């Protein structure tokens, strides 16, 4: 049986030659992400904004969105969003945070239930008070920062600081682009989105570390090889692994996006996006960034002598 | 690398066997487990999260401002009492001012005596011991001009709040137990919050109503000499307050501020039916001291109305027709059987020490939960099958090995979730599916490495050996970085997100285990029996 190979053996794709373009592309994309984030903002869900979310299903036939909207507006609860959710009889109601005390906030659910009565099935209700939503947002940001810091320390210990910095730059790039994805697509940004970002951080680093691992190995083997040539070689050698792993992960994630249901779609869709970006960044950002961070190896001969000696000392094997 | 001692092989196979045994109860009903499953075997089933089985997640916050006001009001009463003790101490301007109770002592020669009496009210919460300073609830600020201010001491308030949260949890637990509903978990969260999770709860509105009520019940004498209209304009006699009625169109009544007695004097409350009208009522029984007090009051006030007040709302205001001496009575208030039951539950369980407000609420109906399980299962099935097909196409026989490892991985993940009783949520299922996709990474790393080594001219055995050895370091580094991100997520996450972190962490660990033990064992066995001249990669 002939096995499926996406790339022939011994590919010699000159990835490093393209680094100008990939840096330019990523730079522009990152700036655009910030611009869109600034102009359009994110569609932050109630987790971070406070407010009420209800998913209801009509018991007879497709839902009359306009009717429900008019009814709800009669309650005077401020901004109310009514939209279809997955199926024609499934409706998602979002009500903005109530001014004033917690009690007004807590009463929203029962007031909507009193209004819509038994005509609908209450599939899900979520209410987040203002205090909690602030904390959730804070925890989320803290989580992403601490994950990045911890990973940076680990990579620093296992590799060298240049790799650690390179890995964090590549990962930050992924985080920025994923946030841009939320801003552009206006997919709801909630607690599970933070989880998605952390997963992307984990995946992207996993990918980057595999490439770095190969670079480190080759540096020990071919001490006098030009860094650009060496990086190309390392990426080409790990190319099949990188793409195969990305593919199996994407296959699994696609199944989740298509069949996993509406509730976690923003979670799974953003992860799908992140895995593609994470794969791209390990090849086109994480590796070429080393050229800038590791000048000793990029051709500075005086530095290289020292590097050689220390390498010998550090690796008696 | 390819040699396995006999005990290692046994250990690997035993682990998988144990995992399989642990999984079996998940396919049995709880009755079957009780009657057929041997009790010495683990009989645990996977715990489904609220989003999968439906249920309620309620985060309550102790209303600190309300609690402080109540405590200060009580302190004000105590101060008045203390100054009235013989010999009386004259004062002016006693009242609650923001966060303190203040008063001014008239005579300069009574300052010391007043200070002494006030210090008795500071309510020590712990004594100085083992290097810790003594903590009192209040602190006294004594001015030289006779101005006395009593306010909370910072540590004292924290300590009190701790007690309040603890007491609230006990009260909530009693209430919920009495409801006879599904068993919710009730936990303290942070310094002033309580988390109630009730999986499978079908009537979240009722649960909320039972938990969130302060249920402070008091009896007050009604003053019919002052008209409510006059009172509403502000012409309230001192020591009296205006309260709304629950029925009768919410018309307010003027009542004594100091209650005759309170819910603490009750020993029991039950739903019963009034003999004439057959209307549901709540009958209560008073403690011995409560009964004595009640007998005294009803004897002194025959003919007057007394208001039964629940959380500042008058439920009913019956007339005292004759002295009530037997220590029991009835509350009627146009109840339905359910509302009467709920009130009885609240009275039996006692009042909350402070007002609670809902800070966060998440409810999932059983319909959505079932749909989510179905969607999760379908996605997991299709995702896994697709990955399996890809691995077969890309690696042939070694793809089969990888797929068997994937199956073992899945079994281990589910078994660990079962043993740890970790909660499985919909994002948790997503975590498993993601693991399925990422788990083959270790195999891919190893296989690509073997391929490379073989192409460099090594013999099959040596290539396989080198492949596993060289890939190992990479697998370790790659997985530990992923693990760090997943653990951070576990630390900060709650509810469904935590569920994702749990399966993700477990998945990474089992992936490393299967890659470096099970896959290696399978490949080693294959090499031993086939003695291949070429590795088919």
Task: Give a written overview of the molecule.
- The complex is a heterodimer of chains A (317) and B (537).
- In chain A, 68% of the residues lie in helices and 10% in strands.
- Chain A is α+β, with helices and mostly antiparallel strands and 317 residues long.
- Chain A has 2 domains: 211 residues, Multidrug efflux transporter AcrB transmembrane domain (Multidrug efflux transporter AcrB transmembrane fold, Up-down Bundle), CATH 1.20.1640; 78 residues, Alpha-Beta Plaits, CATH 3.30.70.3400.
- In chain A, a hairpin with a 1-residue loop joins strand 2 and strand 3.
- In chain A, helix 5 packs parallel to helix 7, helix 6 runs antiparallel to helix 7 and helix 8 packs antiparallel against helix 10.
- The C terminus of chain A is likely disordered.
- Chain B folds into 3 domains: 210 residues, Multidrug efflux transporter AcrB transmembrane domain (Multidrug efflux transporter AcrB transmembrane fold, Up-down Bundle), CATH 1.20.1640; 96 residues, Gyrase A, domain 2 (2-Layer Sandwich), CATH 3.30.1360; 116 residues, Gyrase A, domain 2.
- The two termini of chain B are 19 Å apart.
- The model of chain B has no long low-confidence stretch (mean pLDDT 85).
From the spread of the alpha carbons, the general shape of chain A counts as elongated
> What would the principal axes of the Cα set say about the shape of chain B?
elongated
The largest chain-to-chain contact, stated as pair and per-chain residue counts, equals: A-B, 79 and 77 residues
Estimate the helix proportion of chain B, in percent: 40-55%
What is the H/E order of chain A? HHEHEEHEHHHHHHHH
What's the CATH C level of the largest domain in chain A? Mainly Alpha
Write the CATH architecture name of the largest domain in chain A: Up-down Bundle
The CATH class of the largest domain in chain B turns out to be Mainly Alpha
> What's the CATH topology name of the largest domain in chain A?
Multidrug efflux transporter AcrB transmembrane fold
Number of strands of chain A: 4
- Average predicted local confidence, pLDDT of chain A: 85
From the N-terminal CA to the C-terminal CA of chain A, the straight-line distance is: 40 Å
**How many domains would you count in the coordinates of chain A?**
2
């Amino acid at each position: 049986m002939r096995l499926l190979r996406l790339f022939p053996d011994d590919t010699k794709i000159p990835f490093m030659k393209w680094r100008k373009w990939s840096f330019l592309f990523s730079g522009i994309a990152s700036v655009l992400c910030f611009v869109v984030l600034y102009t359009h903002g994110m569609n932050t869900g109630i987790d971070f904004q406070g407010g009420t979310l209800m998913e209801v299903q009509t018991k007879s036939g497709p839902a009359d969105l306009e009717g429900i909207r008019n009814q709800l507006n009669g309650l005077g609860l401020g901004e109310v969003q009514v939209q279809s959710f997955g199926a024609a009889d499934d409706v998602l109601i979002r009500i903005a945070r109530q001014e004033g005390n917690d009690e007004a906030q807590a009463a929203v659910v029962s007031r909507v239930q009193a209004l819509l009565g038994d005509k609908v099935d209450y599939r899900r209700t979520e209410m987040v008070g203002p205090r909690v939503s602030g904390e959730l947002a804070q925890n989320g940001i803290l989580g992403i920062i601490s994950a990045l810091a911890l990973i940076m320390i680990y990579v620093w210990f296992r590799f060298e600081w240049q790799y650690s910095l390179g890995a964090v730059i590549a990962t930050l790039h992924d985080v920025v682009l994923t946030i841009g994805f939320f801003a552009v697509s206006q997919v709801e940004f909630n607690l599970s989105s933070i989880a998605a970002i952390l997963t992307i951080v984990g995946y992207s680093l996993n990918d980057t570390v595999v490439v770095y691992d190969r670079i480190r190995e080759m540096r020990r083997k071919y001490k006098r090889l030009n860094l650009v040539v060496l990086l190309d070689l390392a990426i080409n050698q790990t190319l099949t692994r990188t793409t195969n792993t990305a593919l199996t992960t994407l296959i699994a994630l696609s199944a989740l996006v298509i069949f996993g249901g509406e509730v976690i779609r923003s979670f799974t869709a953003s992860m799908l996006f992140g895995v593609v970006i994470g794969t791209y960044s390990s090849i086109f950002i994480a590796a070429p960034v080393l050229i800038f961070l590791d000048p000793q190896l990029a051709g500075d001969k005086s530095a290289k002598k020292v590097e050689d000696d220390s390498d010998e000392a550090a690796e008696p094997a | 690398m390819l040699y396995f001692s006999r005990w290692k092989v046994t250990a690997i196979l035993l682990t998988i066997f144990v995992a399989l045994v642990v999984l079996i109860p998940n396919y049995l009903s709880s009755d079957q487990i009780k009657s057929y499953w041997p009790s010495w075997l683990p009989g645990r089933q996977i715990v489904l999260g609220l989003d999968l089985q439906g249920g309620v997640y309620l985060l309550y916050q102790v209303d600190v401002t309300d609690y402080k006001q109540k405590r200060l009001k009580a302190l004000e009463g105590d101060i008045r009492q203390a100054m009235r003790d013989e010999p009386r101490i004259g004062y002016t301007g006693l009242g609650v001012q923001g966060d303190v109770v203040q008063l001014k002592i008239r005579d300069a020669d009574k300052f010391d005596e007043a200070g002494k009496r006030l210090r008795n009210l500071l309510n020590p919460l712990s004594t100085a011991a083992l290097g810790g300073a003594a903590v009192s609830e209040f602190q006294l600020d004594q001015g030289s001009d006779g101005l006395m201010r009593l306010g909370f001491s910072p540590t004292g308030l924290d300590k009190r709040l701790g007690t309040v949260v603890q007491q609230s949890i006990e009260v909530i637990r009693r209430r919920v137990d009495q409801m006879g509903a599904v068993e919710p978990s009730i936990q303290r969260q942070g310094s002033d919050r309580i988390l109630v999770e009730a999986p499978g709860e079908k009537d979240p509105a009722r649960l909320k109503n039972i938990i969130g009520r302060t249920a402070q019940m008091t009896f007050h004498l009604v003053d019919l000499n002052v008209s409510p209209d006059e009172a509403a304009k502000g012409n309230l006699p001192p020591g009296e307050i205006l309260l709304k009625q629950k029925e009768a169109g919410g018309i307010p009544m003027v009542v004594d501020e100091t209650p005759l007695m309170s819910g603490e004097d009750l020993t029991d409350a039950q739903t019963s039916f009034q003999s004439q009208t057959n209307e549901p009522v709540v009958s209560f029984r008073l403690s011995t001291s409560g009964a004595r007090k009640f007998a005294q009051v009803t004897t002194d006030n025959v003919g007057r109305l007394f208001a039964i007040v629940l959380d500042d709302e008058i439920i009913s205001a019956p007339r005292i027709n004759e002295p009530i001496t037997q220590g029991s009575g009835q509350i009627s208030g146009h109840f339905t059987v359910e509302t009467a039951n709920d009130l009885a539950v609240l009275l039996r369980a006692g009042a909350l020490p402070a007002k609670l407000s809902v800070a966060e609420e998440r409810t999932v109906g059983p319909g959505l939960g079932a749909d989510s399980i179905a969607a999760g299962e379908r996605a997991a099935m299709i995702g896994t099958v697709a990955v399996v097909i890809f691995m077969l196409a890309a690696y042939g026989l070694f793809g089969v090995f990888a797929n068997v490892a994937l199956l073992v991985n899945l079994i281990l993940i589910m078994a660990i979730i079962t043993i740890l009783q970790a909660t499985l949520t919909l994002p948790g299922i997503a975590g498993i599916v993601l693991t399925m996709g990422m788990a083959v990474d270790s195999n891919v790393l190893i296989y690509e490495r073997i391929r490379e080594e073989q192409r460099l001219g090594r013999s099959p055995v040596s290539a396989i050996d080198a492949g596993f050895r060289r890939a190992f370091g990479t697998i370790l580094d790659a997985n530990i970085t992923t693990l760090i991100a997943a653990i951070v997520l576990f630390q900060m996450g709650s509810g469904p997100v935590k569920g994702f972190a749990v399966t993700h962490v477990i998945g990474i660990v089992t992936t490393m285990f299967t890659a470096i033990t099970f896959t290696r064992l399978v490949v080693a066995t294959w090499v031993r029996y086939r003695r291949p001249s070429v590795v088919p990669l």
